[in-house]
Amino acid sequence: DQQVKQNSPSLSVQEGRISILNCDYTNSMFDYFLWYKKYPAEGPTFLISISSIKDKNEDGRFTVFLNKSAKHLSLHIVPSQPGDSAVYFCAASAANSGGSNYKLTFGKGTLLTVNP
Amino acid sequence: NAGVTQTPKFRILKIGQSMTLQCTQDMNHNYMYWYRQDPGMGLKLIYYSVGAGITDKGEVPNGYNVSRSTTEDFPLRLELAAPSQTSVYFCASKTPPGQGKATQYFGPGTRLTVL
Q1: Would you call B48 an interface residue with chain A, using a CB distance cutoff of 8 Å?
Q2: For B12-61, what is each residue's pLDDT tens digit?
Q3: CA distances from B68 to A41, B37, B61, B71 (A)
Q4: What are the φ and ψ backbone dihedral angles of A10, each rounded to 5 degrees?
Q5: Contact at 8 Å (CB) between B48 and B92?
Q6: Is the Cβ of B45 closer than 8 Å to some Cβ of chain A?
Q7: How confident is the model over A59-89, as pLDDT tens digits?
Q8: What pLDDT, on the 0 to 100 scale, is given for residue A39?
Q9: Which of A30, A31, A52, A78 is within CB 3.0–4.6 Å of A92 for a Cys-Cys bond?
């Protein structure tokens, strides 16, 4: 039972355009969401996060949107750059649940390719 | 600041052999985690620890053991390696409660092949 789903295995965009990566979740206990970026042969790198009390968080070219009623979040990258080409993982945590111990549940990832 | 370090980077084991994957963090984080990532899949939690002397199972603990004798180190032990344990293993640590919520910081990974 996949609690965090990234239904697009890959996405290709042109340099300078917007990249939109999507993520859906099923567990209503999740209250903290993160995006990680992963290059080949490296560990995941934290990119941006959002708490369930917000619907948007922005950090430079990266914005994460959260729609709690739809159990959906998205990551927008504007403008996209070739160096953004990587696998992006969506992750969720029941951070405010005492028994969660901040464990993360990950989606399968989306490979983003930004073409020059 | 080294962050989270893992050794070795690569390892090939024969079926039935044992090995320990090392993980060290220098950020004084209490929470540490071990994940495995299979091709085309997300990361799955193997074991985690909320502090020295305290460990607990994650989603896929079978075939693995852990110990946490110090805040810095969280080794993962494979006792009888099986081909199903061929994967990339990531160690992570988390900022203290109240700082960055559930944000975990990852090491570079250990690529393990069992033949």
Answers
A1: yes
A2: 999 999 999 999 999 989 999 999 999 888 899 999 998 999 999 999 99
A3: 26, 22, 16, 7
A4: -150, 160
A5: no
A6: yes
A7: 999 999 999 999 999 999 999 999 999 999 9
A8: 95
A9: A30
Test the B interface: residue of A88, A101, A110 with most B CBs within 10 Å: A101
Domain B25-94: assigned CATH number: 2.60.40.10
Q: How far is A97 from chain B (nearest CA, A)?
A: 11
SS3 (DSSP) at B102: coil
CB proximity under 8 Å: A 85-114 to B:
89, 93, 95, 101-104, 106-109
Q: How far does B4 lie from chain A, in Å, by closest CA?
A: 10
| Contact criterion met (CB < 8 Å) for A42 and B104 | no
- The alpha carbon dihedral of B58, B64, B70, B73 has a sign of negative
Q: What is the pLDDT of residues A91-114, one digit of tens each?
A: 999 877 666 677 899 999 999 999
Task: Determine the Cα–Cα distance for residues A64 and A56; give it in Å rounded to an integer.
Answer: 6
**CB-CB: which of A4, A95, A108 is closest to B40?**
A108
Q: Which CATH superfamily is domain A4-115 in?
A: Immunoglobulins (2.60.40.10)
3-state secondary structure of B85: helix
Residue from B1, B54, B50 nearest B27 by CA: B1
Query: Residue ranges of the domains in chain A?
Result: 4-115
Q: Does B74 touch chain A (CB under 8 A)?
A: no
- H helix intervals, A17-113: none
Residue pair B25/B84 in contact by the 8 Å Cβ criterion: no
